[in-house]
Input
Amino acid sequence: MTPHTEIFNELLKLAVENGASDIVIKANKPAYVRLGGRLKPVDMDPITNDIAGAFVEEHVPEVFRSRWDTEGQVDFAYAADGVGRFRVNGFHQRGLVSIVLRHIKSRVPDFEQLGLQSEALIRMSQAKDGILLVCGATGSGKSSTMAAMLNWINQNLEKHIVTIEDPIEYTFQDEKSVFQQREIGLDVPSFELAIKAVLRQNPDIILIGEMRDRETFETAISAAETGHLVFSTMHAATVAQSMTRLFEFFPPEEQVQARRQISGSLRGFVCQKLVPALEGGGRVPTNEILNADAVVKNLILEGQFEKIQGLLEGSADSHSFSFNKDIYRLIKAGKISKAEGLRYSPNPQALDMNLKGIFIKA
Output
């Protein structure tokens, strides 16, 4: 093992033992780790630019080396012996090397372990076809929630599941379902080639790591329309923002056709944030979930997106609810404080009214 790899492995071991989710390296500075959402410095010698650069040079897969050399940034997976797997992003800033590593959990979580409300997520997971989108900011636990949904399917349904990931975040063991997990750069040269091939691989369920562009979304729609269930993630904070992002894939003159396609194929959104827990440190997930029932589909078809938030706030359906409803539940259950709930609420004034017993009626 080279000296720079040994330095990194010791750092990664320390981070994992302390429950860090991310490790941030800036050349010529000590490392930082993210604990419970907060960035903390590590008591260690600075990591020099030579050490950081040597780590990337040694471990970047050969297929990505030209990207690192020409673009100055690269994503790849790294496995530290006896420690675990990490998603690595190497990049340059001010002419120096920086690296961010995210710990990839080896054990696939379930709903209870993540603290999620399972009823709505199980109902979505049972869909025969369509598109399910798990949304949130970077580090909000999107991948873990999606993995928990696939874990439930694996334990309960007989499905052929093909995943396209960059890199693979959770390794599934076949139970009732059969998994084919394809990692960009290792199993297939590019995301575009994997997307083009997936429908020929006879899947029941397709996981697309990220809904990144129009071509990806159109492939998802095509798969949904031909009887497949598609899981993917998006960087969007709320259901309303997620809906807006979808339609940004299409120019104005194609909006009517897009509404028709999306209303027919969408099965729902799961939006997520992580809120500091009241006791024991750590964070707990809070969700905004939209189940695309007949009412929602009609609103999409008619372009009446502004009515969807009111539906989430006022609906008595346990399968669709707003962030405020879920934050209210967590406050009442003693999982999070009122102050944190108001801080993470997209509409703190309305949440404050809810906590005083004032609610919008359906």
Summary: The mean pLDDT is 92. DSSP finds 15 helices and 13 strands in the chain.
